[in-house]
Write a structure and sequence with these properties.
- It is a single chain.
- The chain is of the alpha/beta class.
- It is built from ten helices and nine strands.
- The protein has a five-stranded parallel beta sheet, sandwiched between helices. A two-stranded antiparallel ribbon has the order 1-2. Strands 3-4 form a two-stranded antiparallel sheet.
- Strand 3 and strand 4 form a beta hairpin.
- Helix 5 packs antiparallel against helix 8.
Amino acid sequence: MVVICPKCKVRLKIHDEKISPDGSRFCCPKCDTVLLVKRPSARRKEINKRLIMVAHSDDSFIERALNILKGEGFEVITSKDGIDAMVKSMKELPFLIIIDVALPKIYGFEVTKRIKERAETRDIKVILITSVYDQRRYKRPPSTLYGADDYIEEPDLEDLLLAKIRALTEGGRVEKETAEEHPPQPEEKAVTEKAAPHAAGVERARRLARTVLSDLYLYNPRKAAEAIADGNFREVFQVQLSEGFKLYQMRIPSEIRTQGDFFNEEIERFIERKKKETGK
């Protein structure tokens, strides 16, 4: 970089590697004036106001979202796990992230919290996709959105997504219509589809387990945090985990379930991750 001495106006060429992060002092060779030279601050990358990131582990959901967003002219990037979503959010700076709460590697609500805590990404809008595994159970919004600007329940994607985006860009929030109540649908009694390929089947099993856990945490954050800290998470949520496991047994084919204890593995991963976050 080139620096001009303010006293004698001589031009000094200084290599960037000689300048420390806090700035370095150089002596003008002509008039002996001591100059404090700092590196020019990097220009902050602007948020791309046409770019949306869809972060979800389910290909069918990503396809649904792409059909909606590309039809409106948005540019779309995708991610299938929490680590990749974090990296892309910082690198690409989309103006909006549509993110599944039950992402693998890092849960979507945890990614949201980290995005909102970072100066370079806190202005990105976030819509959480809540994957309530039993829609008859919850009739209220999550207790906390972990910094997200809004949320959509997965079945309402086509009905609410564009309205939610407009509300976030114009201010305000769209609420789901509640005037018409629909009777609960009967639970699935068996899996009738052909067994998916092994890898896809295992991921489906793990995602259902993560969905159960993310529901528990979204709707009971304080209780769950206290139970994890006290080492009795399974005991405190015994009823909910038992119900979730019954659903897991109905929805996941036996040939996948016999490959590993994916449900309990995800519970242990969740507990360990939360312990590391709190240092307990």
